[in-house]
Amino acid sequence: MTGTPVRLDMSAPTRGARGKPPRHFVDLTPEQRVEAVTALGEKPFRAKQLATHYFTHLTSDPSEMTDLPAAIRDRIGEELFPQLLTSVRTLTADGGTTVKTLWHLFDGVKVESVLMRYTNRSTLCVSSQVGCGMACPFCATGQLGLTRNLSTAEIVEQVRAAARALADGEIPGGPGRLSNVVFMGMGEPMANYKAVIETVRRLVAPAPDGFGMSARNVTVSTVGLVPAIDKLAAEGIPVTLALSLHAPDDELRGELVPINTRWAVDEALDAAHRYFVTTGRRVSIEYALIKDINDHAWRADLLGEKLNARGRGWVHCNPIPLNPTPGSKWTASEPEVEQEFVARLRAHGIPTTIRDTRGSDIDGACGQLAAEEDE
Q: Which residues does the UniProt record annotate as the domain Radical SAM core (predicted)?
């Protein structure tokens, strides 16, 4: 299994040969938004008006911004609110409370997002890259390879669209609000660091400069890009870190997660523990249970030992029944094996919860819809 090697230039996202997405209002800082509207000949207060419309009213359509003079709406739309995402396919499950959307971007490439509404929260899983360069062989997105990084606005637009759907009552359960965002869709978030951290800033900034979400309700996942984990820890934004481990031993993890040959299991776990020490936020360990590959009881014991070697109370483990892709040799563990794996971890005192795998009947694994579109 091969893929595009990961790029670790965390100063700017990789754009690829397809070109850079058009500038969008959300790509700009509050100060840059003021500069942008004054460059269009408008008063500085327009920047706050536009931010209120976008982050509070959840609209990017200037025709809905009725407190703006009609004469300037078209120009503002063209200059600051280009359409970045177009929904081309939507699948639902769980009585309509799980919604998977396939988006086409400005250059025709495809990404997916999944909105999941529960009784006490609503969570959006966003994509941060078109494809992925990590080449994990059991992952549908990893099989696509990396096309390009998403811009900040391309990620944030996934969030705004989901928040608007909830607010408008389009999801069963009546009008609601988006409470959680997880960077667990297509791509390796830490390989698109700048756009991801700028997105996080838009998520947690108080209105009208952002969505005003709690940092603890934002989860950023990674397969273990150690320098990026340390950089995230220093940002002062205590989001939840999720480390996709999938194996506690280097021999197997090197096969399942090729980046392990650069940063081994212990290095990734050390970085995750440093994140906990710096932020005080408990780290999630993600572990896809794959039948006869990584679901052995002794591997559960080894994982428990390695986590406890770094202290107590710093981690939570989420075993995930693998959502297999069509034609793949990789499949989910048997229920009794899964239960034994969980029991072994809990015996080591590791808080462990089987992660809900919603949407398995709608090509729930990220990348499946995009792959189908390319067939």
A: 118-361
